[in-house]
């Protein structure tokens, strides 16, 4: 079974994730997960990361437009 993938359309976000992964000798997935978990802690009362990931997987499958999902969620 193939690993889940996340497509990022922001060159700035992609470059930052790659730079942090190299600097900390971690995978990009680990850097992104840790960043999202840190963000979740700072945004108490919002949707949990696990709920967010489950909703993304259920509604979008493997190929997602993260910017669109975030924009739609902010409109709620």
SSE blueprint:
Layout: H1 11-24, H2 28-42, H3 49-60, H4 66-75
Could you please describe the fold and organization of this structure?
The chain is mainly α and 76 residues long. α1 crosses α2. The chain is globular. It has one domain (11-75). The protein has four helices and no strands.
What's the gist of this structure?
This protein is an all-alpha fold and 76 residues long.
Keywords:
76 residues; mainly alpha
The total number of structural domains is 1
**Unreliable spans:** none
User: What is the alpha-carbon Rg in Å?
Assistant: 13 Å
Structural class: mainly alpha
Overall morphology:
globular
Q: Given the structure, what is the number of helices?
A: 4
Average predicted confidence as pLDDT: 79
Proportion of β residues? under 5%
Euclidean distance between termini CA atoms: 34 Å
Largest sheet: number of strands, sense, barrel closure: none
- Compressed to H and E, one letter per element, the order equals HHHH
Fraction in helix:
55-70%
Q: How many distinct beta strands?
A: 0
